[in-house]
Amino acid sequence: MKLTHYISLRYIGVTILVMLISIPLFYVAIQNVLINNIDESLAAQKTGISKKLQLLPSENFVNFDDRISIEKNPRQLLPEKIFTSDPYHKEDDEIESYRIIEFPVKTTDGTFNVRIRQSLVESEDLMKSILYLLISVFVALTATLLLINIQVKKRVWKPFYHTLDQLKKFRVDHAEGLHLARGKINELNDLNDSLNELAATNKKVFQSQKEFTENASHELQTPLAIIQNNIELFWQTDFITEQQAEILNDISTATTRMRKLNQALLLLSKIENKQFTNIQPVNFNLIVDTYIKNYQEQIKFKNLSLKKDFSEVFIVEIDFGLAEILVGNLFFNALKYAPQESEVEVIIHKNELKIANHAEGSALDQHQLFKRFQRQNTHEKGNGLGLEIAKEIAAAFHLDLKYQFENHQHQFILNRQ
């Protein structure tokens, strides 16, 4: 949900809540005010009628108002009270509300029960008018808030969304930097200035790290080659003792490992810099077939059974060499970590490649699995870069590489994003 929509919904929600609470309260308050006014009017009429009955003889008192009824010498005097009555009128087929005051009057001419009533129809009409007015104000207020939100989104938040778009497009490994312009709003200017500075610093740090990795890797190639050549020359000399042979073997093993590590770091640097030279539609089925043929000796050595399901062809636009490395790393890992006499599965669909091997233990830590120099246990002899290289290659060509543990299998699944 966008920020403007979130804020608008909160505004409208609070407005609706306030109006739903305030409208009934306002209605009750206005109703009480009107009833009080009517009661005061009835009290004034009571005073007037009482005075007239006291001053005039009863035969001279003439009542022309049908709302007032006077009963002379009743059997029982009514207690004074004021109340609301809702009688049903058959002729109009409706209920009409009245406010009624009843009170007794004693004069020298006799006793009287007086009853004055006043219709509440006009008050109810007034209340309905007020209620309709409140509802109209509520609808107009809600519509106004929506219009304000639309205008705010178009004008006030426009620089913010522009900044957001620029941030989405910014890549620290691209030549073009982040240049966010200043506007009229101080807070957004401060934000843009901070982001420009942060992007420039990160870009500089990234460039320094990239150059260091490239230079270090290139510079290491020559001394490693010299060491390896000298070792081979030393092997060809006479009179090598058993102790010297062991030392030479250890040096050769370490040199080979350093050379592979150096090559892996160079490869990662090229992937991060997007130095691709041979992008083409690549058939992953053919690559997997090639690796299956090349690794027959390892498969036989561990007595593995290979389950192959190529129901469809998985073709990806990718650098051919990197595609071979990607598939090779996954396939080699499956063979390497599969237990003796177990099964390795390779399943290919139109948009997916899955390579799985049975597991002797539990699931791997997928949060660390694809990170640089991370190993799942201390017995691994690899450089800890194979899966990270596979992950980087996949990401560079809009593929998703994920790991899951199901049916006691380590499953690596490659599919289109």
From TrEMBL:
Protein name listed in UniProt: histidine kinase
Q: Which UniProt keywords apply?
A: Kinase, Membrane, Phosphoprotein, Transferase, Transmembrane, Transmembrane helix
Give TM regions.
12-30, 130-150
> Source organism lineage?
Bacteria, Pseudomonadati, Bacteroidota, Flavobacteriia, Flavobacteriales
GO: which molecular function terms? phosphorelay sensor kinase activity
Q: Which Gene3D superfamilies match?
A: 1.10.287.130, Histidine kinase-like ATPase, C-terminal domain (3.30.565.10)
Is Transmembrane a UniProt keyword of this protein? yes
User: Which Gene Ontology cellular-component terms appear in the entry?
Assistant: plasma membrane
- Which Pfam families does this chain map to? HATPase_c, HisKA
The EC code for this enzyme is 2.7.13.3
Encoding gene per record: rssA
Which N-terminal stretch is annotated as signal sequence? none
Native organism: Chryseobacterium salivictor
